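Hi there. Long-time user, first ticket. I'm pasting a complex I've been working with (about 736 residues overall). I'd like to know whether the download I got is complete or cut off, because the file seemed smaller than I expected. Thanks.
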Amino acid sequence: MAKRPHSLLGIEQLAPDEINALLRLTRRMAGGRPRPLLRDRRIALLFYEASTRTRTSFEYAAKALGAQTALISSQSSSIEKGESLVDTGYTLQALGAQAIILRHPSSGAASTLARFIDIPVVNAGDGMHEHPSQALLDAYTMLRHKKTLRGLRVAIVGDIYHSRVARSNVFLLARMGAQVTLCGPPDFLPDAAASLAKGLRITRHLDDAIRGADVVMMLRIQKERLVHRHINLEDYTAAYQLTAEKLKLARRDAIVMHPGPIVRGLELTSDVADGPQSVIREQVANGVPVRMAILATAVGAA
Amino acid sequence: MSAIRKNGSILIKGGRVIDPAQNIDADMDLLLRDGFVAELAPKGKVRGSADESFDARGLVVCPGFIDLHAHLREPGQSHKETIATGTRAAAAGGFTSVCCMPNTSPVNDSARITAWMLEAERGAVVNVFPVAAATLGSEGKQLSDYAGLQKAGAVAVTDDGKPILDETVMRDALRLAGALNMPVVQHAEDTRHTAHCVMHDGPTAFRLGLRGMSADAEANIVERDVNFARNTNGHLHVAHISTAAALKAVRRGKKSRARITCEVTPHHFSLLDENVGDFDTNCKMNPPLRSAADREAILAALDDGAIDAIATDHAPHAAHEKNVEFDRAPFGITGLETALGLAITRLHRERKMALPRLVELMSTNPARIFNLRGRGSLVRGSFADVTVFDPAKRWTFEAAKSLSKSKNTPFDGCQLVGKVVATLVAGHFVHRNG
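Hi, the file is complete. Here it is re-exported in full:
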């Protein structure tokens, strides 16, 4: 168990009112005015895995709150010399860090770190497990276009098995009363996925998933995590690619989402990615206020 | 075993003596002399005299427990455990004999290393029976020298942790070991299908984003090996069986009169995959904690005899090795000091397993499976290896007080019923409680 209640390790541990509080705070942070809530506080970004969106937006978010940031990446630190995750955490704490933002390829790394150190840990993606800040920014983005999450029909399509984004989104959306449908081939969507949340629907057919959806969320095939799974990309594309034609099955006002990075021509076509229903770039932009809200809450300044 | 003293005598009085090998379950007196059982007689009827007596009223007195599967880590990994510390933990858990696995550093694939393990300098306080590597370096290619290993003191062969996948090698191992009356112990896991897997494949693994080992990866190997055992007339002992599917294969093999035995660990009959909870590395072991249906099958097999023995798979690891990311942590937990408490709590109290059956699983059968002559029974002339336990004692296991060098256990703070009161090896106390 985390020593600090303010750690954000995953959506699974959050109650609906905690999710709502973070989304409300995000709205206040979105004004663009500087809010020096974390003036001169030290925030460490500990990244064991490559990242563009998450790292940059956490860094901008911390700076927008007035914090000092330090980036520690596994390639250019004592991690290369064999320093363990927990020892690295102790080191950053000793250097005065008041929160650690952790991106790590191992599922559960944020929970492990939080068990040992006394400062809050913010999970910026752990292996295939959770990516809570992404799910929060996705929810925030949905709420910019839809009145409420309750009853919202959300289809999540693609490589669910390897996706921490999918897990966090399922936990959040189910908890907030949305109707979630997961869609993909058995290798990417094993039957065990149905146990993630109550009322979850699983289908192997893209049409079935998209028909009548308010939100269509496409996921990337995570080639870097494929083990023993040999997927024929041509077959996959034929069955699961989101095209303009397929998108017509969704509600007319449906939005298309993607956590990025997108692979054009694979999980979705360029015309869909750049089309009027796509909110993919807006998702990226919303990453900053959401992460401001997360950091302010974690450090206890909100 | 020159470190173990033998001379002297002791009378263990008035205990409930359970010795399934002789079909005994009665209040009796037990006289041990010069390392052997001298007399077992109804209360007050022992004729010989003793230097010392021990009041066992209200306690169970049984042949000492024998652990078929423990990792004592010597040579080479003495920061996790030594033969001296591991056997002290064993004594505290009521084990008078420990069969230790060969995945040491270097691997125990030679008479020289086997003999080294048995030297008095190792400081063992209970009997140690090395299980040697089935192939050189446990690389699964070339068989080790079984006759030479047996002569040096090895009681079985295994490549534990590195299952023998090559079919010819496995058949040859069963044939050769079978001719020497030694079992081949197989950790059944088709490692070609479990790369990067860290727990049981099921809803919990999916929820945590951890890669899961399928039950088939165990069952397919057991099924294959059962057929090999039948064809070679070898003795296959399936280590730490964990799935319903593998148990089915074992049952089929036993019915066909092949020489098949198997063991289960206390954690596999006590815990489930969901106990991994929030990435608890003390619930990471191999085979992994399984589903509720698998545990039900294990409990049924413990009752009806398809499972022959309880073995701990005691696998000590240092805290700094376990306090890491879940997928980087080594597999294994300690188990010597919690085995009896878990067996009594989970099997005797919760499922009404009779205590004689429990003794059979922890002593009588293990002695038979590894052909440990003179052990596993209190018949006159047997080695004076005795466990005395209180089947009703409530206690809380505290990992910090464990005698093992390592404290990696999911049972820290666990309330248990049934506690070892005394452990005697060759007629001498190696552990005594309160």
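A couple of notes from our side: Chain A has eleven helices and nine strands. The beta strands of chain A are 42-47, 68-73, 99-104, 121-126, 153-157, 179-183, 201-203, 215-218, 255-257.
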